[in-house]
Specification:
The complex is a heterodimer of chains A (510) and B (267). Chain A is of the alpha/beta class. In chain A, 48% of the residues lie in helices and 10% in strands. In chain A, strand 5 and strand 6 form a beta hairpin. Chain B is an alpha/beta fold and 267 residues long. Chain B has two domains: 121 residues, no CATH class; 136 residues, 3-Layer(aba) Sandwich (Rossmann fold), CATH 3.40.50. Chain B has 14 helices and nine strands. In chain B, strands 6-5-7-8-9 form a five-stranded mixed sheet, sandwiched between helices. In chain B, strands 2-1-3-4 form a four-stranded parallel sheet, sandwiched between helices. In chain B, helix 4 packs across helix 6, helix 5 packs antiparallel against helix 6 and helix 12 crosses helix 13.
């Protein structure tokens, strides 16, 4: 009997922009593992942040309840997203702002460029923003003849160095201070040629450079950490104060925000303001939190535009197992505890979103078959450190496994001939689906012993298994399996007739 | 108590001494150990590699093997496999739309314990020397495996049991909560990253100065032991069940023909 599939309605479009691994993760990792400077910086920085985070988290007796509250609030937001978004739009509009809706990166970029042109500007200052990196806004504006200046110190370093951020919170984590001085000397207009690599001197040089931009630029672009649906309030959480400058000094402010950043009410902010700084920088409170609602006459930007960005978020929302990835508040705690990220750094993940969250978010937003994004869910030993650290309890390991399942299904649908992995898994399925089959396989154990040679170690295996033996031996297998021993040789000890309770008690007495 | 042993495929085939030690410990406490002969594997390798359809008959076999027979609890000397039985098996049944299998998998999962959980939480073992006669006069360091720590929340159960063994000397391991880099097929698919993780784990084990690295998961020990062996390190790996089973009268040898050991211990 044949069934006719009518297909699924295409309810969501996948994301575009900087969401792709353009080479497979193992290949990219192979290269980045050789970067000794990167590994040393990452090991030091992630280790320090890890310790700080654990310390400040331990101060809160209700941390687990806060995590639960954060998780439940975000679940509510996702369940009620259409209504909350319209409510946000109404409130922003009512307070003098303008809301724009962007389906993907291209639409968002066009909207922002149009708004800048309408102001007659050719320069903009920017607050550190993941959403604008995701859509490749700076590159797009450059093509349009508009210069975008990053004002976050680390983003500035990355931008001046014609580089890509490698960590969402510490974008220049892969650079040391000598490299930073060299970038400033080469790229920063009007910099003191005697500049040293003293951190204070570097910061002062950046400060002087940025001050000029803040005071002369009419348009600013920001992201947002949170948006409150019932008041229309936007929030940016930062450390340096450059964000506050951008959000208050220019005449026009354009905020690009992913649609998942919503919170239902102002009160909900309390939970997230307890969760975010502690999880990201390991601080009780971040130095600058800016909140604004629409436009206030005579105070701050007089034009406010909010660009609401989908870019694959509704595709992620449509994945029942994966949708909680949208709960992410971009704290970077999962990266800082990830043993894979700690060794490869962020560039290996290709996408704007690196680390464990990136390994699920990127393929969820683009579809598992896009470019090399199907290699990302395998970039984890499933150790679970990310899930434990996540302030909104995203079960990253479970979603990684779910996406591996989607990848295998997609690959099988495409392939005519089975891969090496397929053959191995099919053989293992037969061996592992009955005790009798496994016993038969185990009869071959003495053969493995022969393979091992005189030192009883297997040092080299062919094919995929060669990945194992590149750094690890396998001990020669035993002569006899446990199963065979049990059948032939196990004799229950005589006193098994003794009642278990008595045994446990006598044990305790002993 | 009637205790069904889930040996796990890797222990059954590669490290039978771990399963024998588990039997020894439980029988010494006066319990009856059963070995459901149709058991094979929990399915974790298939599941974590994304082969859900191939995992289904493996999961179904495990659930069938442990749904029959008269026993009180099941035990496995592996946190990872127990976590898979408890969490992943019902997920696969659900994924494949088999509600009956999901219910039975949940029932099996509820009765299945990791060895230290069974010993501490159910059987009340707090002093291995006094209650089990455990004696092991060697210096060891302990690596808590990720799934025991984070999926089963074993806490210090294994370490506390080891501390209470007669004659043992425990050395601190730096970065104990750091993954050894095994991760099943991760070790092959991402061999470079996995090897870099293992390198750091091997370094901290050697820095501890212990003769042996002890853990509760044969798979992690196979991985760590494989790295130590490749370096011709003086340190080997051993499952904690072996140490609990070791007594003054019947000591486990760590220098002779010990099938369980990887690394130095192999002759």
């Amino acid at each position: 009997m044949s069934q006719i599939s009518l297909g699924m309605p295409r309810i969501a479009s996948y994301g575009s922009g900087n969401l792709f691994a353009t080479e497979s993760f193992p290949h990219a990792a192979h290269r980045d593992l050789d970067n000794a400077q990167l590994r040393a910086n990452l090991g030091h920085a992630t280790g320090t942040i890890r310790e700080k985070r654990l310390k400040v988290v331990a101060e809160l007796p209700d941390w687990e309840e806060l995590r639960e509250a954060g998780s439940v609030l975000k679940q509510q937001v996702m369940a009620d997203l259409p209504r909350l978004l319209v409510q946000l739009e109404e409130n922003v509009t009512q307070r003098g702002g303008t809301v724009h809706w962007a389906r993907d990166a291209q639409e968002a970029n066009e909207i922002v460029a149009g708004l800048i042109r309408a102001e007659g500007a050719t320069e903009v200052v920017k607050v550190k923003s993941m959403a604008t990196q995701e859509i490749g806004l700076n590159e797009y504006l450059e093509e349009q003849g508009i210069a975008a200046y990053e004002t976050d110190l680390a983003e500035l370093i990355v931008q001046l160095g014609h580089d890509k951020p490698s960590h969402i919170l510490v974008p220049a984590i892969h650079k040391n201070r000598t490299e930073i001085r060299d970038i400033f000397l080469a790229e920063m207009a009007g910099v003191d040629p005697e500049l040293t690599d003293d951190p204070r001197q570097l910061a002062m040089a950046a400060r002087a450079h940025l001050r000029r931009k803040f005071l002369s630029t009419k348009v600013a672009i920001s992201g947002a950490n949170f948006a409150i649906a019932d008041s229309g309030t936007l929030a940016v959480v930062e450390s340096e104060g450059n964000g506050r400058m951008c959000l208050t000094l220019p005449e026009t402010l354009i905020t690009v925000m992913g649609i998942e950043k919503l919170l239902p009410t102002f009160l909900d902010l309390e939970v997230f303001m307890a969760l975010l700084p502690r999880s990201s920088t390991g601080e009780r409170m971040n130095p600058y939190t800016s909140l604004w609602t629409g436009v206030t006459e005579g105070d701050g930007p007089q034009n406010f535009h909010l660009v609401l960005l989908d870019n694959g978020r509704t595709a992620a929302l449509a994945d029942e197992m994966g949708r909680s990835a949208l709960h992410c508040i971009r704290c970077s705690a999962c990266m800082n505890v990830c043993p894979v990220y700690e060794r490869t750094g962020g560039h290996a993940y290709g996408s704007t979103y690196p680390g464990p969250i990136g390994a699920i978010l990127s393929p969820l937003m683009t579809g598992i078959e896009a470019e090399e994004n199907n290699s990302l869910p395998y970039a984890s030993s499933l150790c679970g450190a990310c899930f434990d650290a996540c302030p909104v309890k995203i079960n990253i390991p479970e979603i990684l496994v779910h996406l591996r399942g989607k990848d295998v299904d997609a690959e099988h649908a495409k392939r005519k001939l089975p891969s090496q992995m397929d053959v191995g898994m099919a053989a293992a399925r037969v061996a592992f689906s009955s005790g009798r089959n496994l016993a038969l396989v185990e009869k071959g154990l003495p053969l493995g012993k022969l393979m091992a040679g005189p030192d009883q170690k297997i040092k080299r295996l062919p094919g995929m298994a060669g990945g194992w033996t590149q750094s690890r031996d396998i001990p020669a297998p035993p002569k006899q399996s446990f199963r065979a021993w049990w059948k032939k040789e196990h004799v229950p000890t005589p006193d098994t007739s003794q009642t278990p309770d008595a045994a446990a008690e006598s044990g305790e007495d002993g | 108590m009637k205790i069904a042993l889930f040996a796990t495929c890797i222990v059954d085939a590669m490290f039978p001494r771990t399963a024998k030690a588990t039997v020894t410990i439980l029988e010494r406490l006066g319990h009856q150990v059963l070995f459901p002969a149709t058991q094979a594997c929990c399915g974790q390798m298939h599941i974590n590699s994304g082969y859900f359809d191939d995992a289904l008959p493996v999961v179904a076999n495990h659930v069938a093997a442990f749904s029959q027979g008269d026993y009180d609890v099941a035990v496995a000397p592996s946190a990872s496999c127990v976590a898979s039985v408890k969490h992943q098996q019902p997920m696969i049944a659900r994924h494949c739309g088999d509600a009956d299998l999901e219910n039975r998998a949940n029932a099996v999962g509820a009765k299945t314990y990791e060895l230290s959980q069974l010993l501490v939480d159910v059987l009340g073992i707090t002093d291995a020397a006094a209650q089990l006669g455990s004696y092991f006069p060697h210096t060891v360091t302990y690596h808590p495996s990720c799934h025991g720590m984070r999926l089963l929340r074993l806490g210090d159960r294994q370490l506390d049991l080891l501390r209470s063994v007669g004659g043992i000397e425990l050395r601190d391991l730096s970065g104990p909560d750091q993954c050894c880099g095994f991760g099943g097929t991760f070790a092959m698919k991402n061999a470079d990253v996995s090897s870099a993780m293992l390198e750091d784990k091997v370094k901290s084990i050697e820095a501890s100065g212990a003769e042996l690295c002890v853990g509760g998961d044969a798979s992690c020990l196979l991985h760590i032991g494989g790295g130590l062996s490749r370096k011709d390190s003086g340190t080997a790996t051993l499952h904690f069940a072996e140490i609990l089973a070791s007594t003054m009268e019947a000591p486990v040898s760590v220098s002779g023909e010990v099938e369980l050991l990887t690394g130095r211990g192999r002759s």
